Amino acid sequence: MSTQKITEIIQKLTDHKNVVITERGDVAIASALCAVETGTVIIPEEGGWISYQKLPQKLGLNSITVKCDHAKIDLEDLKEKSKSTHAILYQNPGGYFAEQPMQEIYEICKKNDCIVIMDVSGGIGTDLCEGRYADIMVASFRTWKLVDADVGGFISSNIFDLSKVDTLTDETSLHKILTAFHKLQKRIIMLEKMREKVIADLIEYDIVHPNDLGFVVVVNFYNDEEKQTIIKYCTNNELEYTVCPRYIRVNEDAISIELKRIKTVV
Ligand SMILES: Cc1ncc(COP(=O)(O)O)c(C=O)c1O
Ligand 1 center to residue 80 CA distance, Å? Predict the structure, then answer.
C-alpha cells in the first residue's frame, strides 16, 4: 500500500513514470551508474556527494571532473568534456545551495549522447526537481534530507527500465517515508524562511549564491576574525555548521551553515 502511494507521489514530483524506492540514496546512485554500463562519468569538482568520487570506479567506470563556479557547473567545460564521456552525475542544487543550469546541462549532454543523472536529495518538491532535464533522477531520504525519513531513497526514469533495481519493501521504513513526504512542503517552507533570515543577518559577509534556492548557507571568509565571527553567530543561534574546503560544499574557505539538519516541527 505505502509503496504505491509513495511511487505515485514521486511520479508526480519527477514526471518520470518508472520509479523504484530504494534502501538508501547510494543504492539509487549505484543503480543509475549501472545503466551507464561502460565508459566515463563526469562529476562536479565540488558540490557533489562523497560517493560520486567512489562509486564509478567500484562499478568499473572511469570518472572525470567538470569545473564549477562555487558548486555551479561550468557550461563551457561541460561542452568540451561531454564530447568524450558517457554520463554526468550531478546534484541540483549543487552542495544543497547552488541552483544548476539544468536545462542547459541537459541540452549540452543530449547533443553529445551523454546520459544525465540528477541527484535531487536537496531538490525534491521544488522547481529544481524537473524530470524533463534528467534521464535518471536519484535521491536520498535519509537523515538531514528534504524528505527526512531516516531511511530510503529513489531512482526514476522515463527511458530506462528499472525493474532489476533492488526495492525497499520493509513496511515500517515505507511508512516513515510516506510520513516524511507528507511533511515535505512544510519542511521546504520552514528551511527557506530560515535561510532568508540567516542571509539577512549575515548580509555584510560574502554569502555564496544568496539568491538561489538552498537548504544550507555558505559564507566565504577571508581571515580568521571573519571565520570566528561567523562561527560565533552559528553557536549563538544554535545552528550547526561545517568548515570548508569540503567536496560536498565548496573547495574554498567558507562556513556552511547546515540548516537542513534542523528537524521539521509538526
Ligand atoms: C546529495 C546526496 N546524495 C546521495 C546521498 C547518499 O544517500 P544515502 O546516505 O541515503 O545512501 C547523500 C547522503 O548524504 C547526499 O547528501
Answer: 28
* Residue range 8-32, pLDDT digits in tens: 999 999 999 999 999 999 999 999 9
Would the CB of 157 count as within 6 Å of ligand 1?
A: no
- Give the domain range for residue 255: 189-261
* Closest approach atom of ligand 1 to CA 121: 1
195 and 90 in a common domain: no
24 Cα to the center of ligand 1, angstroms: 8
The 10s digit of each residue's pLDDT in 160-209 is: 999 999 999 999 999 999 999 999 999 999 999 999 999 999 999 999 99
Ligand 1 center–CA 90 separation, angstroms: 12
Q: Is any atom of ligand 1 closer than 6 Å to the C-beta of 24?
A: yes
* pLDDT tens digits, 72-116: 999 999 999 999 999 999 999 999 999 999 999 999 999 999 999
**Residue 21 Cα, ligand 1 centroid: separation in angstroms?**
14
Which residues are CB-contacts of 71 (< 8 A; sequence separation ≥ 6)? 44, 46, 47, 93, 94, 95, 97, 98, 208, 209, 218, 249, 250
Q: What is the pLDDT of residues 137-151, one digit of tens each?
A: 999 999 999 999 999
| Residue 103's CATH number | 3.40.640.10
Looking at the structure of the chain, the number of domains it has is 2
In this structure, the answer to whether residues 22 and 124 fall within a common structural domain is yes
Q: Are 66 and 42 in contact (CB under 8 A)?
A: yes
Say if 157 falls within a structural domain: yes
Phi–psi pair at 88, nearest 5 degrees: -125, 140
Closest atom, ligand 1, to C-alpha of 153: 10
Whether ligand 1 lies within 6 angstroms of the CB of 31 is answered as no
Distance (Å) from CA 266 to ligand 1 centroid: 24
